[in-house]
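Issue: copy button drops trailing tokens. Both records pasted manually instead:
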Amino acid sequence: MLHNGILKLSLKSTWRNQGCRVLFRAASKSANFTGLIENELRQVSPGIRELLSSKFEELSKCSRYYTIAQGKQMRPSLVLLVSKATSLCSGIDQSIVGSNFLEDDAPDHVSTGQVLPSQLRLAQITEMIHTASLLHDDVIDHASSRRGHPSSNVAFGNRKSVLTGNFILGRASTAMARLRTPKVTELFATVVADLVRGEFLQLKNTADTNSLELQPFHFDYYIEKTYLKTASLISKSCQSAAILGQCSPTVIEAAADYGRYVGTAFQLMDDVLDYTSQDETLGKAANADLNLGLATAPVLFAWKQYPELGAMVINRFNCPSDVKKARELVESTDGIEATVKWANDYILKAHEALQCIPDSPARQALHAVAEKVVARNY
């Protein structure tokens, strides 16, 4: 655990036992967890391309651009795995009319371990919203590449990229409305607002631009931004999968917690990879965060040891030598190791969140995905 109020995660004794994680780490290396959802995952990209079809050929080309070179598909994979894992929860087999009614249990949904059509559509919608956010982010960040190819703003220009992102959000909203589940629609409307709020938080590195000394609120600000920009979509999509599966409130909350913890850990590791991975492995330029003026977790931890980083953080590394100097300071401290440890703390919480879900290959796959998040190098 990190001290000085930076992180307060209450871990139950079940997950204090590191032997549990050894098993999951071994499983994450050998298990092909996508095999459980192979058929459904194969339908995600074609379904998205169908949803993005337009009589305007250039608009169709722009909107499908990021679906050609597929990314990690982590978000739709999590939606599908949560759908399978929670389908085995007993709550969804409860009668909607009472067990004594004409000797008929009449369950509204019988647990089969399968993904519902609405949940498959949810996986597609989740990836569409993520893709729209990438289009907008690449314009804001003046990106030059994405997934090893020219970014959309380079290929089509800023105007078309922004309009395309808006179009994808519109089509995703239409598909969401057709699910006819008001709570899920509300959650995803909140996600879109969260993405914008997170981007606004990223416009500066701290809530107090006059503080040159590291304070706990700097980490709070960072975590809030991370939730809004990254973890919100993952959390609410996992939560929505459980809602569509008609699970109990306890299971729905557990799915949301799992997604939030995994999403936060994912972003923490993304911050680490900006320092440890090569451009061709990461799919984007290394040092990208510092060049954008962003003080990510490794910088915040290094700031604790090197107070001179404070002025660089406040000024968003805008002096010619700031990026090089900041990287050297980060690499000379335990900032990267502390960030990895922080990510692992969140993964422990993700494992714990799954305990109310019956054990199954799908739940084991969710554990394995969590471990893979902190073991990845891309």
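Record 2 (pasted manually too):
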Amino acid sequence: MGGKETQRNMGTASGETGGIDAPNVGMLPRAFALLRSLAAMQASGARVTQLAKAVGLTQGTTHRILRALIAEGIVEQDERSKLYRLGVDFFALAAQAGNPGGMRSLCRPALLRLCASLGETIFLLAKSGFDAVCLDLCEGPFPIRSFTNDVGGRIALGVGQGSLAILAFLPEAEREEIIRFNVPRIRGYGMLDEVYLRTEIERVRGLGYAARNSGVLEGMAGVAVPILDRTGTAVAALSVGTLASRLGDDRLPMVVELLRRQAEAIGPLTNPFDVALKRRPAHGLLGMTDDERVA
């Protein structure tokens, strides 16, 4: 009986039944890649062909993973259109992630104060692997575009002022590993290359904040200040996103000072056990295959 049970579990882990068992950990990055792609697409949903192309998987593999996610309530399929979209359980989990003792709750008052004082959109970003993720935002009155777009959006560390502020104040070894991994990813953003990125990092470390309009998002500008823990390591960043015309040299010092005050007040209060600030070891991704790492 034990042998049959083992064989059945091994069959599931091999992917033959379409399940995602714990032993088949190689499927997890693919599943998360599909979830991120669904989140980035229209609310009405997406077809298997679209998702397979977006994450670089075959349609068969994509379909099997989607069926497993549907079984868990994380993804759902519209009966009429046959489009796939994020399920109710996904949003329930997302809501639970913003627990009262977490980074979002700690920083929310600061976001509201900055938004009211400056009349701008304020973002809270945190590190997630090789990316920066938007944990929260407070929208200002001006229509803007940003790299993360909304809560849950992510961008490679080094792209945009918020992620640059985080990257610049990470431990040197961790920072170097991220730079090596992200340089190929950021080449599609205008003038961004390794020389530019390293120059900007040194500039940010010298100033204590990130503020430059790279021209990638036309007409937009931003400034960000890192939130540092007790060791001086960045755990998050407060960022302002606004129209370029509203962030001239005459206004920049005042904006930076307000951001810095809030960041310095938050830093000593950060919870080192907050899951939103847990660092996934960067080197853990470097040994993966393209399919396993796709995101």
